[in-house]
Amino acid sequence: MFKLIPKIVFLILLFIFYKNPESEVLIFDLSDKNIQISKTSSNADFTIFGFTDSKNSLVLKVKGPSQKVILQKKKKIIGMWSWSKTGEFIYPGLFHYYTNKDDEEIDFEVKKDLFDNVKLIGKDDDNLKKDLIEKKMSLGLFLIKNNSFEVINKKMPNFFKIPIKLPKNSPEGIYTVSLNIIDSINNFESKKINIKVSKPGLSSFVFKFAHKFSFLYGLFSAIIAIGLGLSAGFVFRKYL
Fold this sequence. Notes:
The chain is an alpha+beta fold. The chain contains five helices and 14 strands.
């Protein structure tokens, strides 16, 4: 807790010296910018600390690195079945929204933003987008959590914190964290802060190796598959 005191003091000083009476103030910082996802702990991976004098709706966004999925369709060519590319999805590997309220206006803005961030290249199909969003939500990779801003001290209600717990299946990489004020006129976004998310253990090594050395990873996977196939054939011939 003591290591978070300088961040809170920084927010207070920033508010005092840079306060503009004609504009709303929205500032925040993070407890940590190098996040290692724990598979056992249920505690928050990091915490957002912030200050605002705005009475409008607020949305914190945690956005993971982009991922891509190829869409294919099975069709018959010269009597043989094959797959042809029909399009591709590009979307954040993780997209979490944390709001300070629970009302129809903020829900509409959040759902619209989530829908707009799922890009479908090829034949546009809203149903495909909805299916992808529902699947990612079931895995915890897409999340909308209302009323998640916690007051740090009742005597200073403008200061808040938001504990963030990332799911175990979160992708590694660089994430962006941003804070938004939403009203009927403007959609003001605060600065973006980058954080690095990593995983301990063998799964992290395999993930990094597969992405940095994709050709070698594919080659080793093919060799292992062939080896397992030959071994299984040998066992069946010998014992069956």
